[in-house]
Amino acid sequence: MKTGLETLILPAGKAGADAAARTLAAGGLVAFPTETVYGLGADAANAAAIAHLYAAKGRPAFNPLIAHVADLAAARRIGRFDARALKLAEAFWPGPLTLVVPKTENCPVADLATAGLDTIAIRIPAHPVAEAILRAFGGAVVAPSANISGHVSPTLAAHVESDLAGRIDLIVDGGPVAVGVESTIVGCLNAPMLLRPGGLSRERIEAVLGMPLARPPVEAESDDSQPLAPGMMASHYAPRANVRLNARDVAPGEALLAFGPAELPGLGAAVAVMNLSPVADLDEAAANLFGYLRSLDAKAPRAIVVMTIPEEGLGEAINDRLRRAAVAR
Questions:
Q1: Is the dihedral of CA 278, 57, 47, 221 positive or negative?
Q2: For residue 224, what are the contacts with CB-CB under 8 A and spacing of at least 6?
């Protein structure tokens, strides 16, 4: 993680939006206001930047992040909208509503941002500063709340500065936000489902749909399950192959997910080898995690064996995901 950064604070305006766009394009982290809360933005297509974002927030697990875009055309480039999702988007965007939809076939959003899922959470914020930054940047921006995980969500630039100064590159100060609670999240995969209550009421959404919103499945309420979307827990992507953790050797027919410069006995027998970070950098490992798991799984190995990863920094979140992937199915 980048530490000891000089966090620049700029007022809202064209100069601030242009600086934010340049910072995002360079892989930096930018806090900016939306109508709900201040978000901490990173280029949604840049896995390394997203890893830095998790580290800056101290986020305990790789939960899916919301991709913020400037307009519906941009949203449809990254997500597939059925008739009901489109109806909600046209009724409530821009606004405090996040829709979870299937990813498009060539969705550029990094696997780390979607926690390895085949779905994506999308929102068009209704705030002139956020819109200006998104249009200046020209791509999707993931932006969870701009605070240390577990702290109260920030509604002023000063709140962001208090939590994240020295951890992020830029704060764009657009004054106090209007809504003050996070967006409502609705899953549009089968029957529309309320995944997280927020700044848009259930009643208004149901009035547009002409039907009640479904409730999350019981297993979604367990902290032992995986997030389907921000603010909700449910089963997530796991490899088809069995996963063996803390491997000390590689057996014939297995694929190795390596970490660091060390080599394991039996390496030559592996059907495939991918190294999360040859220099043992946990940010780099986080950025590569989901993509490498998918690539190794595509080789149809007997098992995917994983070298030991330190339980520190982003290693805690990496190991959390790997432990879940290794659960017997």
A1: positive
A2: none
Q: pTM of whole model > 0.90?
A: no
Q: What is the pLDDT of residues 253-265, one digit of tens each?
A: 999 999 999 999 9
Q: Tell me the pLDDT band of 198, cut-offs 50, 70 and 90.
A: confident
The β-bridge partners of 142 are 42, 67
Taking residues 194-211, report their average pLDDT. Answer: 91
Closest-CA residue to 326 (of 272, 257, 245): 245
Question: What are the C-alpha distances in Å from 231 to residues 113, 197, 321?
Answer: 14, 9, 17
Token readout for 297 is 């799984």
- Expressed in angstroms, the distance from the first to the final Cα of the chain is 34
How far from 8 is each of 156, 170, 306, CA to CA, in Å?
Answer: 15, 5, 40
Burial classification of residue 174, based on how many CB atoms lie within 10 Å of its CB (0-12 exposed, 13-18 middle, 19 or more buried):
buried
**What are 62-78's pLDDT values in tens digits?**
788 999 999 999 999 99
Give the CB-side neighbour count of residue 312, counting CA atoms within 13 A: 4
- Closest by Cα among 222, 205, 223 to 214: 205
